[in-house]
Structure formats: C-alpha cells, structure tokens
C-alpha cells in the first residue's frame, strides 16, 4: 500500500478518526476534518480550519501517518 492509499483510507474511514501526516522534515500536519484535505497528483493539500493557512506536502516527503486517537501515537511509514 503506497502513501496515497494510506491517506485515502484514513480520510474515508467511518467513523473518521483524526490523524497526523508527518513530513520528512519532521513537521506534523494534523487532519481533524477530512474535507480539508485534497489528494492531488503529486502532493497532498491540507487546509487549516477557520483560517487562510494551508500546506502542500509532496508525497515523496511524507514520512508517515500517525493516529491522533487517545492512545499512544503509532507511526506508519511510507
């Protein structure tokens, strides 16, 4: 499963469970609303709720996807 499939699966999960996209630089992008994420051809677009801020992360720089649930964070590498 590639990183696009992993992110898509997380976005489509019912019920939705918030998660974090971690970049190769170590920056973490919280995803609390699946409607604020767009899977583009070569990158993922992430908008911040209630603001004009957004980020684009190339898939090549996605280091992992982590759960934001109450338990310990688990890292899923690309």
- What is the name of the CATH topology? SH3 type barrels
Category by helix and strand content:
mainly beta
Highest CATH level, the class: Mainly Beta
Distance between the termini: 8 Å
Helix content: 10-25%
Q: Spans with pLDDT under 50 lasting ≥5 residues? A: 71-76
CATH architecture: Roll
Average of the residue pLDDT scores: 91
Coarse morphology: globular
Instruction: Report the sheet with the most strands, covering strand number, pairing sense and barrel closure.
Output: 4 strands, antiparallel
Strand order of the largest sheet: 2-1-6-7
The count of strands amounts to: 7
- How many structural domains? 1
Helical region count? 1
Computed Rg: 12 Å
Series of secondary-structure elements, N-terminal to C-terminal = HEEEEEEE
Q: What portion of the residues fall into strands of 2 or more residues? A: 35-45%
């Amino acid at each position: 499963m590639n990183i696009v499939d992993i992110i898509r699966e997380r976005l489509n999960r019912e019920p939705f469970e918030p998660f974090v996209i971690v970049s190769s630089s170590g920056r973490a992008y919280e995803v609390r609303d699946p409607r604020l994420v767009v899977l583009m051809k070569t990158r993922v677009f992430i908008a911040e709720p209630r603001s004009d801020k957004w980020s684009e992360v190339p898939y090549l720089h996605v280091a992992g996807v982590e759960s934001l649930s109450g338990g310990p964070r688990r890292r899923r590498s690309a």
